Amino acid sequence: MDSRINQTKLIATEDDVTPTVLAAMEDTSDPRLKEIVTALVRHLHAFIREVRPTEAEYEKGLQILNTIGQQTDDAHNEAVLFCDVLGASTLIDLINNDGMQGETMSALLGPFYRGSAPECSFGETIARSETPGDPLILSGRVVDVNGQPIAGATLDVWQASPDGLYENQDKDQADFNLRGKFTTDSDGRYLIRTVKPAGYPVPTHTTTGDLLRAQNRTPMRPAHVHFIVSAPDCKTLVTQIFADTQDAMVNDVVFGAKDQIAGNLRLHEAPLDEYPQDQAPFYTCVYDFVLKPGVPSFPEPPIKGKVS
Ligand code: DHB
Ligand code: FE
Questions:
Q1: DSSP secondary-structure letter at 102?
Q2: Number of domains composing the chain
Q3: Ligand nearest, relative to CA of residue 203
Q4: What is the pLDDT of residues 191-218, one digit of tens each?
Q5: pLDDT, tens only, 220-239
Q6: In terms of Cα–Cα distance, which of 76, 172, 189 is closest to 128?
Q7: Which among 108, 218, 241 is the best mutation to test ligand 1's pocket, defined by most ligand atoms within 8 Å of the CB?
């Protein structure tokens, strides 16, 4: 039946709106676009019917949408932040990465991935300027789901300074401080020198912060280091390794913490034979990343650079 026949009748009541709008979209050429937008209309209208917003509330909602765009610039991504605190990013992450083949669990990308980090040699430090915090040596292997090491895998790593800011948020940190790209050796091993991460608050000076305050929620994330691990013919892994208490992990404001990606940090109060040039005290964390077969793909960086 030609759906446009439905539109010969003008909208008269609340109940007419959804079928009329869906009928108007009937000729969408791209089937996936049609599925997405018609589902959006059905759920949006159902949401509106449930909440029955006043006109003032609708105005406020539209203002919030506009501020999310206005507050986004090269060094800040409000849309990512907003969707992260609503749990949408973690839900989408788990729908697309269920861990069922034995691969390492993923975690949300977050708004602070810059891309184009400098290439680092095996064991190089990513602390590029004076950075507080205890030294941390991260090491392990990148392997496939059969446990075979993957030589030449790439680990793109980034973390906040223990004083709570990513370098792009902080004029006092060197460009690309605590960011770097490492490659596994012929045994699939990687070695990264950095500082022990600390928990930090997500940015709270924008719309998302207003929401968190209204909800009496903590803005804190548990301490973690971000990784994008990739290799040819493997699904790219976007994840985070956590270095915090169970309590901090349970209360992650963006719901990214998972048991399987909790790192096991060990404090060394005396030098280790393995790392003769590293002065104690320092921490080590050994973690093996497991990649499953797939086609590599890389997220668009949510930000481009530093605050000016
Ligand atoms: C991270 C920070 C955020 O503000 C967010 O929304 C998600 C993740 C992070 O740095 O890990
Ligand atoms: Fe982070």
A1: S
A2: 1
A3: 1
A4: 999 999 999 999 999 999 999 999 999 9
A5: 999 999 999 999 999 999 99
A6: 172
A7: 108
